[in-house]
Amino acid sequence: MVSETSLSDLNLIKRGKVRDIYDMGDALLMVASDRISAFDVVMPEPIPDKGMILNQISLYWFGIMAPLVANHVISGDVKDFPPACRPHAQALEGRSMLVKKAAPLSIECVVRGYISGSGWKSYRKTAEVCGIRLPEGLQESDKLPEPIFTPSTKEEVGVHDINIDFETACQRVGREVAEKVRDLSLSIYAKGAALALEKGIIIADTKFEFGLVDGELVLIDEVLTPDSSRFWPLATYRPGGAQPSFDKQYLRDYLESIKWNKQPPAPHLPEDVIANTRAKYLDALKAITGSDYGL
């Protein structure tokens, strides 16, 4: 694991809930830590190897989606990183990528293929999600007639993103860009969901981020990971309630069970919860990429 001080000689410009970003001059170094957050609060204990797992899943999907959309990845191989990274090669191996500098859009691009989470809560109240009317009589976790694009605002760490309708997304980023990222998001989701289904995983919903590099729209951040998506095992899928998952829903369910108020500070995690959460991330890595990368 990369400690918060082990790269102190590099130029840290942003520390997110999970990723640390360093300015390398012409490029950025993105390092996926083992931190884990739930309900927008970072837990006190890390999940061993989580950063490496997320990074490898993202690199896998960036490659798969390259024919559909350009992305910000320059390299995921430490040997290609700038000389300043060489003393940290061991710490960075597997959990980092060198990326182009992009100007992120101010919306999160959420695609839902199944009704769950905040979408389910919204549907129960209004029969709509982000202004999109859905059929009557849906059960929790039902597959939607077709995937829907349900954007949200992109807020700072510790502030919940807010679901918005498409017209509000147009106001934030411009209609042409909003239409383009909507279409790209639906295409990426369709391709990813179909491939995952062949491997026994339902991708119920996910979120993408896009940015501009020299005026070109590119896919950035992470792609179809257990942190940005709901992964359900196909073998146990039964609509009508919440589903077991490969993602951090297990951790959320534990935190709900102990009646945590979802405000900092987060409670300490028992060893079995840490181990079980790690196992779910590792299962997702193996299922999607076909490799456990020696973890």
From TrEMBL:
SUPFAM superfamilies: SAICAR synthase-like. It is an enzyme of class 6 (ligase). Residues 13-264 form the SAICAR synthetase/ADE2 N-terminal domain. Pathway: Purine metabolism; IMP biosynthesis via de novo pathway; 5-amino-1-(5-phospho-D-ribosyl)imidazole-4-carboxamide from 5-amino-1-(5-phospho-D-ribosyl)imidazole-4-carboxylate: step 1/2. Its EC number is 6.3.2.6. The keyword Metal-binding does not apply. GO terms for biological process: 'de novo' IMP biosynthetic process. Pfam families: SAICAR_synt. GO terms for cellular component: cytoplasm. It catalyses: 5-amino-1-(5-phospho-D-ribosyl)imidazole-4-carboxylate + L-aspartate + ATP = (2S)-2-[5-amino-1-(5-phospho-beta-D-ribosyl)imidazole-4-carboxamido]succinate + ADP + phosphate + 2 H(+). Signal peptide: none annotated. Keywords: ATP-binding, Ligase, Nucleotide-binding, Purine biosynthesis. The keyword Secreted does not apply. GO terms for molecular function: ATP binding; phosphoribosylaminoimidazolesuccinocarboxamide synthase activity. Belongs to the SAICAR synthetase family. HAMAP family: SAICAR_synth. This is Phosphoribosylaminoimidazole-succinocarboxamide synthase. It comes from Desulfatitalea alkaliphila. The lineage of its organism: Bacteria, Pseudomonadati, Thermodesulfobacteriota, Desulfobacteria, Desulfobacterales. The gene is purC.
